[in-house]
Amino acid sequence: MNNNEITAALDALRGGDKKAFEELYNNLRVPAYTIIYRIMWDKSAAEDILQEFFIKLYFSPPEPSVKNPRAYIFRTARNLATDALRKRQKCLSLDEMEDTVPDNGLYGANDLKIAVNDALKSLPEDESQIVTLRAMGELKFREISEIMKIPLGTALWKYQKAIGKLKKILEGEDAL
User: Which of 36, 71, 110, 117 has a CA 20 to 30 Å removed from the CA of 134?
Assistant: First the structure.
């Protein structure tokens, strides 16, 4: 969904149109989940946060004055995941945290999605989030810089750096 479609759906949602919410959910569920998952690295927690995100969107959609609703929506999903991760890290022991990270030895070498996810886990958090926002959220670098609260040049540089690292990792080289 582009900004105009999201704006129209949000306007309808504010007017009580449940079909508009269904359209938002169907179109934004996968990219929002991916962003959340790549912060949490835990499917169950990501699903919970995704549900919380859509409940929040349903009951308090952004005001019409929001100029870039697409960036606003993905920033909200990212912020919910980041907050949940902070709370979780305060509560979990190191052993419990290690249990939430999948064991790489269980995966076949031919599964590209798993290989990319594993490679993304090895990147610094900010670089992983930038790649995810760009690839799954299909956001422009200007929107990413706004969401991440970093200069545009930094977003571009970190993205290029992360892509280079991912390429090396996926080719079997040590990128870090």
Answer: 110
